[in-house]
Design a protein that fits this description.
Blueprint: H1 2-18, H2 23-36, H3 45-51, H4 57-70, H5 74-80, H6 83-93, H7 102-115, H8 120-128, H9 131-144, H10 150-164, H11 168-176, H12 179-191, H13 198-214, H14 222-234, H15 238-251, H16 255-263, H17 266-282, H18 290-308, H19 311-318, H20 324-332, H21 338-351, H22 355-363, H23 366-386, H24 396-413, H25 417-426, H26 429-436, H27 443-457, H28 461-468, H29 471-481, H30 486-502, H31 507-512, H32 516-522, H33 529-545, H34 550-558, H35 561-571, H36 578-591, H37 595-603, H38 606-616, H39 622-637
Amino acid sequence: MDGPSAKKSTSFESLVIQNIENVNDLKAKLNEIISSGKDYEYDVSSCLKALLKSSDQAIVLLAVQAISEVVKCEIKRETYAQRDIIEPILSLLNKEITIEKIDLVKQCCRALGNLCCDCDTSRKLLLEINGVEILHKILEMSIKDKMSLDEIKLLTCKTLLNYAIGGQEFSDSLVKDDIIKCVKQILCSESEKEYMEDDLVCTALLMLSVINDNDAELLYESDVNLAVLHVLKETASVEVSELCLEHLHTQAEHDSVKTLLAKEGGVNLVCLRLEQLVQRNDEGDMNTDDSEVMAVMKQACDLVIIVLTGDEAMDILYKNGVGEVYLTMVKWLDSTNYQLLATAVLAIGNFARRDDYCTQMMENKIFDKLLDIFELYHGFSVRMQRNEDQIHPIDKGTVTKIQHASLSALRNLTVPAANKRIAAAQGRAAPILINALPNVDDHHVAYKLLAAIRMLLDGQEGVARQLCAHAGALAGAARWGGAGHAGAAGEAPRLLAWTARRLPAGCRALVQVEGCVSSLVNMLVASHSVMQNEAILALTLLAIHEQLSDKLVSQLLSSEIGKHISVLIETNCAKMPVEVAENLLAFLDITCKNNTIVCDYKEAKVNEALQKFVRARINLSNEMKLCINNIISIIDDKRA
């Protein structure tokens, strides 16, 4: 009953409209449809389609307005997404616009905008009928004409936005028709006004965002990005600011935009805005939801950091240690605002990519400041671990982020050899970092902590001695070596290997702490030959200095040393560097003096792997061949 009745009612309603002869009655009916809007229950698309061709312009206006209101209903939208409806509306827009026709143009733009909302059928028709070209002309006229066309400008932009959201096919047509030039003109014009039209600016910025989202590699012309920067400079709106920052952040994936923002004072502006936001928020002078303020602050902080990842931009902003942005970051190291502090620490880590900058920052005590920050926030982390049920004044994510950032910066600052010596001689860094290792529970922080200790240890025997004397720290490194998190799992055995090489006398400590040997054995099958070589050298030093003690042999066997060596050889037969091969042979030669290990090698078919290696490498020296054959013979001759 429901289906046929509804169909009959719709047909009857259409019949009623078609048979209205009095113009005023027809206008009243159309106004009734307009008032009902998306709740109008009948399908009268055929009637409205016919009325679009009426000679009475008042009827045409009401018909377009009725379509605009009815298609706000998602279900009805597809019914009206027809060429016979969209084409006449575009034809109306394609005629000369006079003051008398302004209302009609507005309603046509509204109708097209609503038809294109989440409706690819309408979008495709607009594309096929050259609708973008027509809308482009309307937009250009609304920008240049002295008539009061601000509403038409906004409605046209909203229509183009709804159209572009459909995907790259549609957004590309906007680029092709040079809509971006109009968007830039709108942004420039609005930024020069005393009061911006925020709705228009937001719509224009969203158009740029959608176009960029659909084509991630798109690089806008510099004048477009500068127009967005000028809007950011002039706006007082949190929403507009967020859209500007989002646009600039996306574009800053390109190094040329990083440099542009650095040269044009964009980062200085963002830093100033951040400080103003923090001050106003602290004083309770914001009429915006806290979450919106935090979102804008995050966007701003992220933009500062992404710009600093560009080498040229970073040089401009550092400016030999007197750059305004660099000095602001140094100032923020003392900030009580976690967002500013985290940004400052990340920024310092990026400035610390050049040795001369690192030297200057070390002289200016930036290293000491970072060490203070890490020590403080690591302390927060430890207290949080011990008192999980308590409410803490800072969230765990922030504590983790600041620890991670400070460790990364500390690591970068100790890359220059002179800075390692200074840090080691001061005597603070090694104990703080080494003592923290047993208590770290986040793998991202662990990764950076292990890397910072390894960089500090390089060339510094005293640091290696402190690490070897701390069984808990060695156990912590071993634990992360087997934890399965790529960063920490790769860094932990490297730290152990560097320790063995820097302080061979400390090899006993590595053997005594469960897991250290296993971690080194696992590094034999790392994907990088540098790490493979480090593992081989460290294990060789252990074998020499421990004289293949029972404890070492036991740990090598439990770590499946034979299987790891077989895998190492077989997966690298053709590509293993000669230096790595020579070091591996030295390790095999030493360990083949132990019968138990030789049995393990035979069971793991190390001898067969070595034979494959010889066949794969025709240019081996006679000395290497002799050494390999000798090792193969020892393993072959061993009886199980």
